[in-house]
Write a structure and sequence with these properties.
transport, globular, single chain, two-stranded antiparallel sheet, mainly alpha, 3% strand
C-alpha cells in the first residue's frame, strides 16, 4: 500500500512537471528556440507570488498577477533579444541558445539580489485530503488541478482558436503561413509571451508545495527538458506521459534511495533518453 501511495504522489508531482514543461515545449514547437531561461521564469513567478503573499495578497490572485507579469516579461525578451537575433544572424538558433543562457544567469542573479539565496515557500492549503487509505497534501491536489486547467486551456487555445491555429501553422510552414497573411513576428511574440506566462504560473504552484530559491532555476530547466525529451520535442501529448514518468521515477527513487538519488534521477533519465531514444519514448522510428 505504501508503494501505491508513493506512485500516486509521483503522478501528482508529474502534473506540476507537465506545466513546467508546457511553456518550454510551446516555445520550442513554435519557434525552435531552446529557452535556457525557462527555469528563471519559473523561479521569478514563484518568488513573486511569495512576496505578494507576504504583502497579504491571496495566492490565487497572485497567480493572475504573475501570469500577466510573466507574459509581459516574455514579450519584452522576445522583442528586445530573440527577434533581433533572428533578424540579423544566420545561425540564430545557436545565438538564441547562448542569449537565453546569459539571460538565465542575469535573472537568477537579480532574484538573488531581491530575495537572497534562502528557500521560500508559502503556508497555504496545508491540510491533507484523505481518499480511502491514501492521504494527499491539499496544496498538491489543488496545484495539480490548476495545472490541469492551465494545460487544457493551452491545448484548447492551440487547437480551437484562430490565434492558436495560426501559431501552429506558422510553426509548420512559416512561408505558407506568411502567404496566408499571418504575421510571423506577432505570432512569435505571442508564443514566447504565453510560454513565459505558463512558466511563471508553474512557479506559483510550486511555491505552494515546496520551498524554492533562485539557484534552483537550472534544475527546473533540466526537469522541463527531461519531460519534453521523453515525450518528444514539440510533442504535447508525449509531454503528458513524460511528466508522469519523471514524477513517478523521481518519487520512487527518493523513497528507496534518498534525496541525493532523487535529485539526480532527472539527469540520469535525460542521459538515457539521449543515448537510446533521442526522438522521445513515444515517437515512432521512421521506416
Amino acid at each position: 500500500m505504501t508503494y501505491v501511495q508513493v506512485v500516486l504522489n509521483g503522478i501528482l508531482l508529474g502534473g506540476f512537471y507537465l506545466l513546467m514543461a508546457q511553456g518550454l515545449n510551446l516555445v520550442f514547437g513554435v519557434m525552435g528556440i531552446v529557452n535556457l531561461a525557462h527555469g528563471a521564469f519559473i523561479v521569478l513567478g514563484g518568488l513573486g507570488v511569495f512576496s505578494l503573499y507576504e504583502a497579504g495578497v491571496n495566492p490565487f490572485l497572485g497567480l493572475v498577477i504573475v501570469l500577466i507579469a510573466g507574459a509581459a516579461l516574455g514579450a519584452l525578451v522576445q522583442w528586445a533579444v530573440i527577434e533581433r537575433i533572428r533578424g540579423t544572424a544566420k545561425q540564430h538558433e545557436l545565438l538564441t541558445l547562448m542569449a537565453t543562457f546569459g539571460l538565465s544567469y542575469i535573472l537568477i542573479n537579480i532574484a538573488q539580489q531581491v530575495w537572497g539565496s534562502n528557500y521560500r515557500t508559502i503556508p497555504f492549503l496545508q491540510s491533507a485530503l484523505t481518499v480511502g487509505p491514501f492521504r494527499f497534501s491539499l496544496s498538491l491536489v489543488v496545484g495539480v488541478a490548476l495545472a490541469a486547467v492551465i494545460t487544457l486551456s493551452i491545448a484548447f487555445w492551440l487547437t480551437r482558436t484562430r490565434a492558436g491555429m495560426s501559431l501552429r501553422a506558422q510553426a509548420q510552414s512559416p512561408v505558407g503561413a506568411g502567404a496566408c497573411g499571418i504575421n510571423p513576428r506577432r505570432l512569435r511574440l505571442v508564443g514566447f509571451s504565453v510560454g513565459a506566462a505558463v512558466a511563471a504560473a508553474a512557479g506559483m504552484l510550486l511555491v505552494m508545495t515546496q520551498p524554492i530559491a533562485p539557484q534552483e532555476a537550472t534544475n527546473f530547466t533540466i526537469v522541463a527538458f527531461v519531460v519534453i525529451a521523453l515525450g518528444g520535442l514539440g510533442n504535447y501529448k508525449g509531454a503528458v506521459a513524460g511528466a508522469v514518468l519523471v514524477g513517478v521515477v523521481q518519487t520512487l527513487a527518493g523513497y528507496q534511495m534518498g534525496a541525493v538519488i532523487q535529485g539526480a534521477a532527472p539527469y540520469l533519465m535525460l542521459i538515457l533518453v539521449m543515448l537510446f531514444r533521442p526522438a522521445g519514448l513515444l515517437t515512432r522510428k521512421a521506416a
